[in-house]
Amino acid sequence: MFTVVLPGVHPPELEPFALFMFCGILPWTWFSSSLLESSNVLIAGGNLIKKVLFPAEVLPIVSVLAGLVHFCLGLPILALFLIYYRVPVWPTDLLWFPLIVLTQLVLTIGLALLVSALTVHFRDVRDLLANLLTLWFFATPIIYPISQAPERVRRLLNLNPFTHLAVAYQEVLFRPGPFAQVNRLIAVAVASIVVFLAGYFVFDRLRDTLPEEV
Predict the structure, then answer these.
(1) Residue 91 lies in a domain
(2) Which of 15, 170, 195, 17 is nearest to 96 (CA)?
(3) Which domain holds residue 191?
(4) Choosing a second label site near 33 at 20 to 30 A (CA), which of 74, 136, 165, 186?
(5) What is the rounded end-to-end Cα distance, in angstroms, of the chain?
Protein backbone atom coordinates (compact mmCIF):
# COMPACT_ATOMS: atom_id res chain seq x y z
CA MET A 1 0.00 0.00 0.00
CA PHE A 2 2.76 2.46 0.95
CA THR A 3 4.45 2.01 -2.42
CA VAL A 4 1.24 3.40 -3.93
CA VAL A 5 0.41 6.23 -1.55
CA LEU A 6 4.05 7.14 -0.82
CA PRO A 7 5.82 7.11 -4.19
CA GLY A 8 9.45 8.14 -4.48
CA VAL A 9 8.54 11.28 -6.43
CA HIS A 10 5.70 13.41 -5.13
CA PRO A 11 3.37 15.17 -7.57
CA PRO A 12 3.99 18.91 -7.97
CA GLU A 13 0.80 19.86 -6.10
CA LEU A 14 2.25 18.30 -2.93
CA GLU A 15 5.43 20.35 -2.98
CA PRO A 16 6.86 21.34 -0.59
CA PHE A 17 5.98 17.92 0.83
CA ALA A 18 7.30 18.72 4.33
CA LEU A 19 4.82 21.59 4.56
CA PHE A 20 2.01 19.31 3.37
CA MET A 21 2.80 16.88 6.20
CA PHE A 22 3.13 19.68 8.75
CA CYS A 23 -0.43 20.80 8.01
CA GLY A 24 -1.65 17.36 9.09
CA ILE A 25 0.84 16.46 11.79
CA LEU A 26 0.23 19.65 13.79
CA PRO A 27 -3.48 18.95 14.49
CA TRP A 28 -2.80 15.21 14.85
CA THR A 29 -0.22 15.89 17.57
CA TRP A 30 -2.85 17.87 19.49
CA PHE A 31 -5.36 15.05 19.06
CA SER A 32 -3.14 12.10 19.96
CA SER A 33 -1.27 13.76 22.84
CA SER A 34 -4.56 14.92 24.39
CA LEU A 35 -6.01 11.41 24.33
CA LEU A 36 -2.84 9.85 25.74
CA GLU A 37 -2.68 12.47 28.49
CA SER A 38 -6.38 12.04 29.28
CA SER A 39 -6.02 8.28 29.62
CA ASN A 40 -3.95 8.75 32.77
CA VAL A 41 -5.18 12.08 34.08
CA LEU A 42 -7.81 10.76 36.49
CA ILE A 43 -5.44 8.21 37.98
CA ALA A 44 -2.71 10.83 38.41
CA GLY A 45 -5.24 13.26 39.91
CA GLY A 46 -6.80 10.74 42.25
CA ASN A 47 -6.53 13.02 45.28
CA LEU A 48 -8.52 15.72 43.49
CA ILE A 49 -11.43 13.58 42.32
CA LYS A 50 -11.85 12.14 45.82
CA LYS A 51 -12.94 15.60 46.92
CA VAL A 52 -16.72 15.83 46.85
CA LEU A 53 -16.96 19.30 45.30
CA PHE A 54 -14.38 18.74 42.55
CA PRO A 55 -15.86 18.00 39.08
CA ALA A 56 -13.74 15.15 37.73
CA GLU A 57 -14.47 15.98 34.07
CA VAL A 58 -12.34 19.11 34.44
CA LEU A 59 -9.14 17.05 34.33
CA PRO A 60 -9.53 15.47 30.85
CA ILE A 61 -10.97 18.72 29.48
CA VAL A 62 -7.95 20.65 30.75
CA SER A 63 -5.67 18.09 29.06
CA VAL A 64 -7.39 18.73 25.73
CA LEU A 65 -7.27 22.51 26.19
CA ALA A 66 -3.56 22.31 27.02
CA GLY A 67 -3.06 20.47 23.74
CA LEU A 68 -5.02 23.21 22.00
CA VAL A 69 -2.64 25.81 23.41
CA HIS A 70 0.35 23.89 22.03
CA PHE A 71 -1.46 23.63 18.69
CA CYS A 72 -1.98 27.39 18.63
CA LEU A 73 1.68 27.97 19.49
CA GLY A 74 2.62 25.89 16.46
CA LEU A 75 0.46 27.94 14.08
CA PRO A 76 2.89 30.91 13.87
CA ILE A 77 5.65 28.47 12.87
CA LEU A 78 3.36 27.04 10.19
CA ALA A 79 2.53 30.57 9.03
CA LEU A 80 6.23 31.40 8.68
CA PHE A 81 6.77 28.33 6.50
CA LEU A 82 3.76 29.26 4.38
CA ILE A 83 5.28 32.69 3.84
CA TYR A 84 8.75 31.25 3.19
CA TYR A 85 7.47 28.82 0.55
CA ARG A 86 5.09 31.46 -0.83
CA VAL A 87 2.04 29.24 -0.52
CA PRO A 88 -1.05 31.32 -1.36
CA VAL A 89 -3.85 31.14 1.21
CA TRP A 90 -7.35 32.23 0.29
CA PRO A 91 -8.83 34.58 2.92
CA THR A 92 -12.26 33.01 2.40
CA ASP A 93 -10.79 29.58 3.19
CA LEU A 94 -9.42 30.87 6.49
CA LEU A 95 -12.99 31.61 7.57
CA TRP A 96 -13.48 27.85 7.80
CA PHE A 97 -10.43 27.38 10.02
CA PRO A 98 -12.17 28.18 13.36
CA LEU A 99 -14.95 25.70 12.53
CA ILE A 100 -12.39 22.98 11.78
CA VAL A 101 -10.61 23.66 15.08
CA LEU A 102 -13.91 23.73 16.99
CA THR A 103 -14.97 20.43 15.43
CA GLN A 104 -11.70 18.81 16.44
CA LEU A 105 -12.02 20.29 19.94
CA VAL A 106 -15.50 18.81 20.46
CA LEU A 107 -14.43 15.43 19.05
CA THR A 108 -11.29 15.30 21.18
CA ILE A 109 -13.07 16.27 24.40
CA GLY A 110 -15.73 13.61 23.81
CA LEU A 111 -13.11 10.90 23.28
CA ALA A 112 -11.00 12.20 26.18
CA LEU A 113 -13.96 11.93 28.58
CA LEU A 114 -14.65 8.40 27.38
CA VAL A 115 -11.04 7.24 27.52
CA SER A 116 -10.31 8.81 30.92
CA ALA A 117 -13.31 7.17 32.58
CA LEU A 118 -12.71 3.76 31.03
CA THR A 119 -9.00 3.75 31.95
CA VAL A 120 -9.84 4.08 35.64
CA HIS A 121 -11.76 0.79 35.45
CA PHE A 122 -9.67 -0.94 32.78
CA ARG A 123 -6.00 0.01 33.13
CA ASP A 124 -5.05 -1.76 29.89
CA VAL A 125 -6.96 0.87 27.92
CA ARG A 126 -3.96 3.20 28.13
CA ASP A 127 -1.61 0.68 26.46
CA LEU A 128 -4.21 -0.28 23.87
CA LEU A 129 -4.80 3.37 23.10
CA ALA A 130 -1.14 3.97 22.24
CA ASN A 131 -1.23 1.14 19.70
CA LEU A 132 -4.60 2.25 18.36
CA LEU A 133 -3.35 5.80 17.80
CA THR A 134 -0.38 4.47 15.84
CA LEU A 135 -2.73 2.53 13.58
CA TRP A 136 -5.08 5.53 13.43
CA PHE A 137 -2.23 7.78 12.31
CA PHE A 138 -1.43 5.60 9.30
CA ALA A 139 -5.15 5.32 8.53
CA THR A 140 -5.30 9.11 8.20
CA PRO A 141 -4.01 10.93 5.08
CA ILE A 142 -1.31 12.93 6.85
CA ILE A 143 1.91 11.61 5.36
CA TYR A 144 0.21 10.79 2.06
CA PRO A 145 -2.58 12.45 0.04
CA ILE A 146 -5.94 10.72 0.07
CA SER A 147 -6.10 11.13 -3.71
CA GLN A 148 -3.29 8.58 -4.13
CA ALA A 149 -4.99 5.87 -2.07
CA PRO A 150 -6.66 3.08 -4.09
CA GLU A 151 -10.42 3.43 -4.41
CA ARG A 152 -11.24 0.52 -2.08
CA VAL A 153 -8.82 1.89 0.53
CA ARG A 154 -10.22 5.40 0.12
CA ARG A 155 -13.69 4.15 1.06
CA LEU A 156 -12.26 2.85 4.33
CA LEU A 157 -10.34 6.06 4.96
CA ASN A 158 -13.54 8.04 4.56
CA LEU A 159 -14.98 6.22 7.57
CA ASN A 160 -12.25 7.80 9.69
CA PRO A 161 -13.49 11.18 11.03
CA PHE A 162 -9.96 12.52 11.32
CA THR A 163 -9.48 11.91 7.60
CA HIS A 164 -11.87 14.74 6.84
CA LEU A 165 -10.33 16.99 9.48
CA ALA A 166 -6.84 16.41 8.07
CA VAL A 167 -8.00 17.03 4.50
CA ALA A 168 -9.85 20.16 5.66
CA TYR A 169 -6.67 21.53 7.26
CA GLN A 170 -4.72 20.73 4.10
CA GLU A 171 -7.27 22.45 1.88
CA VAL A 172 -7.42 25.59 4.02
CA LEU A 173 -3.71 25.94 4.71
CA PHE A 174 -1.90 24.22 1.85
CA ARG A 175 -4.02 23.96 -1.28
CA PRO A 176 -5.14 27.28 -2.79
CA GLY A 177 -8.68 27.34 -4.10
CA PRO A 178 -12.27 27.22 -2.90
CA PHE A 179 -12.90 25.09 0.18
CA ALA A 180 -14.47 21.85 -1.06
CA GLN A 181 -14.92 19.99 2.23
CA VAL A 182 -18.00 21.86 3.46
CA ASN A 183 -20.45 18.95 3.45
CA ARG A 184 -18.00 16.48 4.94
CA LEU A 185 -16.88 18.96 7.58
CA ILE A 186 -20.48 19.54 8.62
CA ALA A 187 -21.01 15.77 8.81
CA VAL A 188 -17.93 15.38 11.01
CA ALA A 189 -19.10 18.29 13.18
CA VAL A 190 -22.42 16.54 13.77
CA ALA A 191 -20.63 13.25 14.47
CA SER A 192 -18.32 15.06 16.90
CA ILE A 193 -21.30 16.34 18.86
CA VAL A 194 -22.66 12.79 19.06
CA VAL A 195 -19.26 11.52 20.27
CA PHE A 196 -19.12 14.32 22.85
CA LEU A 197 -22.58 13.48 24.19
CA ALA A 198 -21.78 9.76 24.28
CA GLY A 199 -18.45 10.40 26.01
CA TYR A 200 -20.04 12.65 28.62
CA PHE A 201 -22.87 10.13 29.16
CA VAL A 202 -20.40 7.31 29.89
CA PHE A 203 -18.29 9.58 32.08
CA ASP A 204 -21.33 10.68 34.06
CA ARG A 205 -22.51 7.10 34.56
CA LEU A 206 -19.09 6.11 35.93
CA ARG A 207 -18.55 9.30 37.92
CA ASP A 208 -19.58 7.86 41.33
CA THR A 209 -17.24 4.86 41.00
CA LEU A 210 -14.15 6.87 40.00
CA PRO A 211 -12.99 7.85 43.52
CA GLU A 212 -13.15 4.21 44.64
CA GLU A 213 -11.19 2.87 41.69
CA VAL A 214 -8.31 5.38 41.63
Answers:
(1) yes
(2) 170
(3) 14-213
(4) 186
(5) 43
